[in-house]
Write a structure and sequence with these properties.
This protein is an alpha+beta fold. It has one domain: Aminopeptidase. It is about 30% helix and about 20% strand. The chain has 4 helices and 5 strands. The chain has a 5-stranded mixed beta sheet with strand order 1-2-3-4-5. Pfam families: Acetyltransf_1. This is Acetyltransferase (GNAT) family protein. GO terms for molecular function: acyltransferase activity, transferring groups other than amino-acyl groups. Keywords: Acyltransferase, Transferase.
């Protein structure tokens, strides 16, 4: 798998992957999420490609205090090949290069398989409550 920064020519493939992985929810327009990300640290939006097919994505962020992970996805038919771990290592390296001391991410408590994946690559439950406030509603 080749890991590289997102390229616009892969936009529809990325959105299809997110849909296949159940990451698209009504309150978030994935195309708008991509456009927003391309305005802030676009080099932290990575895709994994095999034979010109997008098989993995991750969207990293860093605001000077903590790094964040969003949209980690691996094509269901390509799981258990190390692609998720590889793309996470790539975004972690880029965050470390920016001086990021810690990465946070959120997972629904019911998503046991993803929690197990993150635990296996060194992430732990910080025992905090995640709160959110929507500032803008996607159409």
């Amino acid at each position: 798998m080749e890991i590289k920064a997102f390229e616009d020519r892969y936009k529809s493939d990325v959105i299809a992957l997110w849909q296949a992985c159940g990451l698209v929810v009504p309150q978030n327009d994935p195309a708008q999420d991509i456009e927003r990300k391309l305005k802030v640290d676009p080099e932290l939006f990575l895709i994994g490609v095999v034979d010109e097919t997008v098989v993995a994505t991750v969207m990293g962020g860093y605001e000077g205090h903590r790094g964040w992970i969003n949209y980690l996805a691996v094509k269901p038919s390509q799981r258990h090949k190390g692609y998720g771990q590889a793309i996470m290592q790539a975004v972690e390296m880029r965050l470390r290069q920016k001086g990021c001391p810690k990465i946070n991410l959120q997972v629904r408590s019911t998503n046991k398989a993803v929690i197990e994946f993150y635990s296996a690559i060194g992430y732990a439950n910080d025992d905090v409550v995640g709160l959110g406030k929507r500032l803008e509603y996607d159409s």
